[in-house]
Amino acid sequence: MTPAATTSAQSPDAAACTFAPVGLLAELTHRCPLQCPYCSNPLALEGVAGELPTETWLDVLAQAADLGVLQLHLSGGEPTVRRGLEQIVARAAKVGLYSNLITAGVLLTRERLDKLAEHGLDHVQISIQAADAANADRIAHYRNGHAKKLEAASWVRALGLPLTVNAPIHRQNIDGLPGIIDLAVSLGAQRLEVAHVQYYGWALQNRQALMPTRHQVLRSAELVAAARERLKGILVIDFVVPDYYARRPKPCMGGWGRGIVNVTPSGKVLPCHAAETIPGLAFDNVRDKPLRDIWLKSDAFQAFRGTSWMREPCRSCEFREVDWGGCRCQAFAFAGDAALTDPACDKSALHAAFTQVAEGESELPAPELVFRNPRAAAQS
Ligand code: SF4
Ligand code: FES
C-alpha cells in the first residue's frame, strides 16, 4: 500500500489544514545550461514541450496570492531561459508576491536584468560552485561560467537589488570555503547560503565523489561560526549541515505540506521538489484543479502532513513538531520507505548505517564526477 493511501484518510491534523504556504517554488523549466553534479532535479527532466504556458503561470501566481502565499521563488533549471519571465515577474508584483530569481547567472544580460527590475523583481539569488574559476567551471561543467556569474552579481548590486549567493558545499569545494565567504563579501551579497549537498535526484549518482569527511564538515561549521562573528552587519550566513553527519534531521521544507508549495515545469504540485522520487504518491496539476484545493486536500499533501502518519520513534518524540520527522525523500532514498524516521536522526534504527555510508565513502578516493550530459562542457 502506498504512503498516500495509508495516511490520507486517517490524518486528523491533515484534514484540519487551514494554513497557507509562505512560499511558492515555481520551477519554470528544467532546461539549464549547467550540469551541476549535485542537481536535485529528477533524473528524467521535463522537456520544453511539456512546460506550462506563461498564461497558466500568471493564473497560478494570482491563485497563490489569493491563497496567502507571500514569497515567489522563480527557479528551474534556469528560469531565465523562459521567454515570459518578465510577465511572470510583473504579475508577481501586481498580486503582491515578493519575487526571488534563483539563477545560475550565466545567461543573464544587463538589459534583461534591467527589464526584470523594471517589472518589479525584488531579489536575486546566484549560485556559485567555488571561489576559484577553474574549479567552479569544472564542477558546473560550463566554460567561463564563473566569470559570467561574477558579472551578473555586479549588475544585481548596481541595480540596488538585494543579492544572495548560494554555495552548495561538498568534497570538491569544501576546502575553499574561506574563499567562498570572502567572495560573497566582495560581491556585496547580503546573504550567503553555505548549503551542504543533500543526496537525492542526480546528487545520489555522485554521492561518493561529493561526500566530505566528518573532519571537513566540522571544520566548515567552525569557519562559518567565526565568519558570522566577524561579518556581523555585513553578511548573513545560513548554514545547512549535511544530514549524514547530523544527530537530528532538518525540518525538511519546514515540514511536509506546511511552508512551501512547489509547482513543476509541467504544472504538477508537489510538497517538496524531490517528492516525485517517492513512488505511490499521485500529484495533482494546476491545469486540472485550483491551487487552493490541491494544497488543502490533495492526497500527496495529506500523506505526510502533520504528525498522525508517524510511527515510532517519531510518534512519541518531543521533537515531532520541531523537525516533523525530517525528510521523507531521504527516508525513502535510504530505507525504501518514506514513512520511516529520517535516518539522519540518531533515534532511527538506521542512523548508524547511514553515518557509516558517509564515513566510508568520504575516506575512499573520489571517483570522477558523472554529469547528466557527458559531452564537452558548454561554452558561455
Ligand atoms: Fe525528529 Fe522523529 Fe528523530 Fe524525534 S525521532 S527527533 S521526531 S526524526
Ligand atoms: Fe522531499 Fe525532504 S526533500 S521531504
Give the bound compounds: iron/sulfur cluster, FE2/S2 (inorganic) cluster
The gyration radius over C-alpha positions equals 20 Å
Distance between the termini: 48 Å
How many alpha or pi helices? 14
Placed side by side, the strands forming the largest sheet appear as 8-7-6-4-3-2-1-9-10
User: Based on DSSP secondary structure assignment, what is the total number of beta strands?
Assistant: 11
Low-confidence stretches: 1-12
Q: Percentage of helical residues? A: 25-40%
Percent in strands: 5-15%
Class from helix and strand fractions: alpha/beta
Please trace the helix and strand order, writing H or E for each element: HHEHEHEHEHEHEHEHHEEEHHHHE
What is the overall pLDDT average?
92
Q: What spatial form do the alpha-carbon principal axes imply? A: globular
User: Main beta sheet: strand number and arrangement?
Assistant: 9 strands, mixed
Task: Describe the protein's architecture and organization.
- The protein has helices at 3-7, 12-15, 54-67, 85-95, 110-118, 133-140, 145-158, 177-186, 207-210, 214-230, 291-297, 299-303, 328-335, 351-363, and strands at 23-27, 71-75, 98-103, 123-127, 142-143, 163-169, 191-196, 236-240, 260-263, 269-270, 378-379.
- With 380 residues, the protein is of the alpha/beta class.
- The strands form 2 sheets. Strands 8-7-6-4-3-2-1-9-10 form a 9-stranded mixed beta sheet, covered by helices on one side.
- Helix 3 runs parallel beside helix 4.
- The radius of gyration is 20 Å and the shape is globular.
- Residues 248-249, 313-314, 317, 319-320, 323, 325-326, 341-342, 345, 347 line the site of iron/sulfur cluster (SF4).
